[in-house]
Amino acid sequence: MWQKIAAAVISFLRINSFLFAGLALLAVAVGVLAVPATRQIWFKGWSLATRTPVASGLADAVESRTCLNCHTDKEKKLSQKVPHQPFLEKRCTACHTPHDPKTNATRLKAKDLDTLCSQCHAADRQKKIADQMKMGNTHPPFKKAWCTACHDPHASDNPVMLRLPETDVCITCHNMYARFGTKQVQHAPFARQACLGCHDPHASPNPNHTRWPLPYLCFNCHPTAARDMEMAVLHPPFSQAWCTNCHNPHATNWPRMIKSADDSKQPFVDVCLSCHGGGPMGRVGKIDLHASHPVGISARDGREIIDPISGRQLSCISCHNPHGSNAPRMLRRDNDYLCLGCHRKLPGRLNMPW
């Protein structure tokens, strides 16, 4: 008899299996919706490491749609080229808290951006930041954790989520293009708006946030200058890496980026006289242009002295190599060979022009 009863129950369960499965799912759904704690876990989702794709997707969809109902300007940013991953996944509450009135103006979940960012970014980033903070020259926005002054925390069309193209971000604070943009001779990185080719935007152990110390920063692009370091007689400003004493690293109105006044009539002479001219800024003994070889604009009669070889204005560097030389006094050639380059029988007016 019991065998007949068992067979009848098994047959009933087989016939009505779909009915029982449906009832079980209905019971689970009612339990989730009816119990507040269970409902909150389901819609809010578990932590990033444990929550299931179904719960995560449902929670993100509800969460982002609720936020975007008011923050419509953020919805447009979803189509930009470089989105922040939490924003792309529409996990607004990963960074913001919607309820706590004690939070800051942007309702961040942490007291500052550095603390907030470190919750997702690995420890190696924290170590790098700690090392950069110890450097001698830290960029004020970086030091004060003004990350969003340069980077958009949601999305951007620019690399590394910059708010603007690289150079435009820099010139919002640094008016370098207003100062040097109209100069006739521009340094190639400056002309190409590649500020980060020379400067580190966060911190550096070098002055002016340069990526490498001078002269190695310059030698990266100027290998001929690096070879000049092998000369027997070196100009002290060159050997001591005072490159920017003579050259402007951004732009000037003179060849070779010479650092002379815009209205100078003898720029290559004036840059030398900034040290060799005596006076309060002079670092070495004064050169008397009346007693020396005529250069630039003649101190006697005001006429321009022309180099008979190049056809340009004769200047100090016509005879001296400003970096160094294998000849005494940094002369370009030794002894009489230097003088005979110009003082020889030349046709017409070029013969002994002075």
Task: Please describe what this structure looks like.
This protein is mostly helical and 354 residues long. The protein folds into two domains: 86-96 and 106-210, no CATH class; 212-350, no CATH class. It has helices at 2-15, 17-34, 36-44, 53-68, 72-76, 85-88, 113-118, 123-133, 140-143, 147-150, 166-171, 176-180, 188-191, 216-219, 223-228, 236-239, 243-246, 267-276, 336-340; strands spanning 82-83, 137-138, 155-156, 185-186, 203-204, 233-234, 251-252, 324-325. A two-stranded antiparallel sheet has the order 1-3. A two-stranded antiparallel sheet has the order 2-5. A two-stranded antiparallel sheet has the order 4-7. It is elongated and about 135 Å long.
Taking pLDDT < 50 over at least 5 consecutive residues as the criterion, the unreliable ranges are 39-58
Residue-averaged pLDDT: 80
Number of domains: 2
Structural class of the helix and strand makeup? Answer: mainly alpha
Strand-residue proportion: under 5%
Amino-to-carboxy terminus distance: 137 Å
Question: Strand sequence of the main sheet, in spatial order?
Answer: 1-3
